[in-house]
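Consider the following input, taken from an annotated entry for Peptidylprolyl isomerase (Hymenobacter montanus).
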Amino acid sequence: MLFKVNCAAASALLTLLLLLGFAPASRAQLGISRPKGQQLLDGIVVKVDNQIVLQSDVELIYAQEAARAEGKALPPNLKCKILQSLVLNKLMLARAEVDSVTVTDAQVNNEVDRRMAYFIQQIGSEKRLEEQYNKPIKSLKEDLRPQIKDQLIQQKMQETITGKVAVTPREVAHYFSKVPKDSLPYFSTEVEVGQIIIPAQVNEQVKQAAIAKLNDIRGQVLAGADFATLAKQYSQDPGSAKEGGYLGFFKRGELVPEYEAASMKLEPGQLSPVVQSQFGFHLIQFIERKGNTYSTRHILLKPEAGKADASEAAKLLTKLRRQILSDSITFAKAAKDHSTDKTSSVNGGLLQNRADGGTRLPLDKLDPAIFFTIDTMKVGHITPPMPYRTDDGKEAMRILWLKSNTPPHQANLEQDYQKIAAAALNEKRNKALDEWFLKNRGTVYLEIAPEYAQCKVLDVAEGR
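Applying the prediction step yields:
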């Protein structure tokens, strides 16, 4: 369909479509280098103080946008828009350095581990990931660390710039009115699904076996065995086992309380008794103190519950289901009080749409396990307890609730207010970033390669 729109309407439409769609995280978004065999011509195209933008940064994002377009024509100035966005990010990093905006090593390490776990899950195993990138996991993590640190600092800077930005209902309605009626997106069937997850409880016999094993290992170390060697052999902490259990330096308050409390009682070289935390059972070896930080090694054993240990979880879920259906408790209250899934329990048990932050999910984007369960359910129905395996591979039970089922429709304020509000908020945040950029662009040294001079990256507010 061909139509003419003014610049404001085009901007609103583009933002709305981006906010209402969902694209899987790319390698660039996840911060990992491209696999072996894929290479791009490289070179510095922009310098922002001591920050740089590479030709490959622009080309990789451009290639991802081309793949998303699925053969449709791309905007002629897309590379300039990509460069403008990258320059804004580099400016935020440069200003963060001046303004002393930082993130902790613990935050960076946690995010590195999270993204690496995601990649391993996506590709199937650590071995396959190492083969794909022709590097060991340790090297991949080292490649990730500086990129992720930059991303976390950018996020922190962006939060300081846009954190207080909000939209009123009137602004949402005005934003929506700018979108041409014949260009409004059409939504397929959407559902709201709630869940309550309760993990299977590890039986006492399995716990005692883990404690006994760690006490045996402790005895071996006291008899002269090497802690690091035993950690590589027995520890179930994938992040530190290959490093001989070494965790690195942490400040007080950065590790779980039980682990820190046990560590603080030790002198260099000493071993702790067996310590229990939310992650399992630890044997800790203290290494050294340095200023207000300390370093340790540990061996972690994570006793796991089996299917046979889920009976108590099933009983509790059956009771909760009966109470919800009889209106003696709400699903939201039951989820908040009992579900161990933190993401949904704080949201009334409802699964969240990561694209817009709302609770309505496209039916065709649902996890197959949920889709085939709710496909024949009526609104308001709650399933009996069903076996479930958590993201970290633990046995659990859960119940699912179909809260609503919205038929296919064209976007409108009544049914899609939350999505439209998110898009309007995003546009307003972009304007705040543009204003910040215009205010701060003169505070840094900026040099652009001749082949990108026509992009006028300093005019980012006009280029959005």
